[in-house]
Amino acid sequence: MDLGTLGMAIVVVVGVPAVTAGYALLAERVLMFLPSRRRPAYRPWLWLAPGFAFLIAYLIYPTISTFILSLQNASSTEFVGASNYTRLFGLDSFWTTILNTVLWIVFFAGIVVVIGLIIAVLADRVRYETVVKALVFLPLAVSFVAAGVIWNFMYDFNPARGTVNAALGVAGIEAQSWLTEWPRNTFMLIIVGIWMWVGFATVILSAGLKGISSELLEAARMDGANEFQVFFRIILPLLAPTISVVATTIVITALKTFDIVYVMTNGQYSTEVIGTLFYHARFTNHDAGTAAAVAIILLLTIIPVMLINIRRFQAQEAIR
Amino acid sequence: MTRRLRFLAPVALAALVLAACSNNGSPGASGAGGASYVAGGPNAALNTQFGNGGDCLFADPPGCYLHHQASFITSFFEDNFPDVAKAGETYDFFPMPAMEFSAVETAGDLFGMFKDTPQAASLMRYLVTAEAQAIWPGIGGALSANSQVGADVYPDETSARLAQVLLDAETVRFDASDKMPAEMEAAFRTAILNYVQNPGNLDSILSDLEGTRETAYANIGEANPPAASAAPEDDSNLGGEINILAVWADAEQDAFMQVIQPWVDRTGVKVNYESTRDINATLTTRIEGGNPPDVAGLPGPGAMAQFARSGDLFSLEDVLDTDQMAQDYNEGWIADGSVDGHLVGIFIKASAKGFIWYNPKAFEAKGYEVPEDFDGLNTLVDKIRSDGTPPWGIGLNSGAGSEGWPGTDWIEDFVLRQSGPDVYDKWWQGTQAWDSPEIKEAFQAFGKWAANAG
User: Fold this and answer.
1) How far is B362 from chain A (nearest CA, A)?
2) DSSP annotation string for chain A
3) Model confidence at B17, in pLDDT bands (50, 70, 90)?
4) pLDDT at A57 over 80
5) Cβ contact (<8 Å) for B194 and A269?
6) B404: which chain A residues are within 8 Å (Cβ-Cβ)?
7) Residue B95 main-chain phi, psi, to 5 deg
């Protein structure tokens, strides 16, 4: 690390808190000039102003400028109306991309939550719970790219390298080309995602499970409920908020899928998802307009998921 | 009742997944009429890395007898089979035979200047000299575009013959897919994979390509790159540093370092070398981030043209001695490095494409002979197949952003030989329809062997 980088680090570590504190003091000093009665009305806005400024600079402004870019041509030099969108909607490959993304949302999110829940509930009843959770969680610590490379070997067509085909070979089934035939290849990629994310769901759901009072379960059992009834009538409804948080997170992860597809198939053989479509439009085709249009479509699909999540949070807050 | 439905839904979904994942009658290793044309069947071709496509030549007994690939494949043979692969003994080549037309396809690694610094200008001036150009061919796996580099620098007779083919050819054409706009090239590579997988869809694949042609060639403006300033006449002890970005890693990176070592020794410039396989994205990101490398390897002439039009590349007219260039380089190479009359790219190394590799020992054992013409090749291929071995070893897989490229070389070879250089030029320039008979014919010729679509 040279002196310049070191200096920068010092400025950031010391400077940022200093400026933040300085701003707070300055805001209070400014408020002093107001009559004391009106200070409470202005104080929150002054304190929130820097946060809003960052929000506008890093979220609102890029969103608006992306939307404007999506109405312009490939090199962003002139307006072309909605033609980027109409061209996308006219492509078969675009609808395959959307279908793949839907497959990711439904199967990736669905299976991760179900398996995560099963592991969390079952592990809750054994002594070596932490070991199980650690093992299931481990793949999440592997980077997406490394996971893609590992699973490329798993799926390799050559049974000498490909674990899956080697296993099939032992059973006397001929080697399959796992990653070239649609829709099988999309499911094969989803399996990689599931392998990585089940641990996340398990850990969060398991924490939620610990929050359910054991007296409640005890009472149900005393009243003669069998284990299935305890699970479906008591655990599941009480766990619903946690499940919804996990599901939303996983759905958003599914919508943002990029790394696994990029590393394993790069979107070839109709495995393209919105994330890789955006990348290819921007960096392979140098088409800023189409890429921005894809980004806007992704944003529009994420908004409903976010809204549902916010509604749920608000409903929960209201109950409390 | 509803509760039972709720329970059944996941089961039904699971059944759907199983149905989708089960084998839907994939084309097996052997076609209906005897052995496959390609080792392991079309699926093996799709799943094999290009560098391993010719591995079956060296198997015992051979898994294939012929492999179509550019001159640089020799370094893969040597790496994959260090004890077995020997130029002239266990591997040798013959050029893809002429059909209606005779021609050689070439490719090369371009370098361009993205920052106007004396170090960059000095390096570019050094790289075009015969001194620099002779180093990589001497190491092996590369040819030089510089005509002053004699056949004696090549380490073995096979590479010297490869270089001679390039020097002797009357019609030389650069790899068409490299000259197409990036969007067209990417669609072309995707089409190769889709065609080998589903040869029956050829018509819809070609009409998709035709649709891409309409957008990919739109909005192409005139290039007017700024001129870089000349390096100082005497650049010994120039000092400073230079940032270089290129695709080469490992052995290729070492070779490149050897190429620039004499320049580094003379000028004392500190070299910061960065390697990336996805050069297109890395370059774009760095340029748009206002942090371009001083000099960089270019993805190909098509991308070079895009960078020249956006004004990111510097023109080299003041940096290089153009008279000397005209003497040292065939005008085709200078044209391939120029955009709208501005020289912006130089070739670090060149390769010749469209060669068919075979194992002389295996040929001898079976009594096969190198064919004289295309009919002879056809007969040989059918003979090998009827003897029970797939004739071709093909590997179409490659890293992200380049999958399928070996197939584009096949198609280019056929377009050039079946329909001639004029159609070929119109094709990469974007004025030849993809669904025209000339292009379709080339796909079919490739598909007969690579996809058993005879």
Assistant:
1) 24
2) --HHHHHHHHIIIIIHHHHHHHHHHHHHHHHTTS-TTTHHHHHHHHHHHHHHHHHIIIIIHHHHHHHHHHTB-TTSSSB-TTHHHHHHHH-HHHHHHHHHHHHIIIIIIHHHHHHHHHHHHHHTTSTTHHHHHHHHHHHHHS-HHHHHHHHHHHT-SSTTT-HHHHHHHHTTPPP--TTTSTTHHHHHHHHHHHHHHHHHHHHHHHHHHHTS-HHHHHHHHHTT--HHHIIIIIIHHHHHHHHHHHHHHHHHHHHT--HHHHHHTTTTTTT--HHHHHHIIIIIS--HHHHHHHHHHHHHHHHHHHHHHHHHHHHHHHH-
3) very low
4) yes
5) yes
6) 268
7) -65, 150
Least CB–CB distance from A269: residue in B26, B40, B197: B197
Residue B371: what pLDDT?
Answer: 95
A-to-B residue pairs, Cβ atoms closer than 8 angstroms: 81
**What pLDDT digit, counting tens, does each position of B228-247 carry?**
988 888 888 888 999 999 98
Mean pLDDT score, B345-353 = 91
Using the Cβ of A229 and the Cβ atoms of chain B, whether some distance falls under 8 Å is answered with no
Residue B218 backbone class (left: φ over 0; alpha: ψ -120 to 50; beta: rest): beta
Separation of alpha carbons B196 and B40, rounded Å: 13
Predicted local distance difference test score (pLDDT) of residue B312: 92
Cis omega before residue B82 (within 30°)? Answer: no
Which DSSP string corresponds to B347-391?
EEEEEEE-EEEE-HHHHHHHT----SSHHHHHHHHHHHHHTTS-S
The closest CB to that of A283, out of B21, B284, B404, belongs to: B284
Nearest CA in chain B to A173: B23
Q: Å from A306 to nearest chain B CA?
A: 25
- Establish if A152 touches chain B: CB-CB under 8 angstroms: no
Q: Answer whether A177 touches B (CB < 8 Å).
A: yes
Q: Which of A87, A187, A263 lies nearest to residue B20, judging by beta carbons?
A: A187
Do residues B407 and B450 touch, judged by C-beta distance below 8 A?
yes
Tokens 């669609």 locate to B187
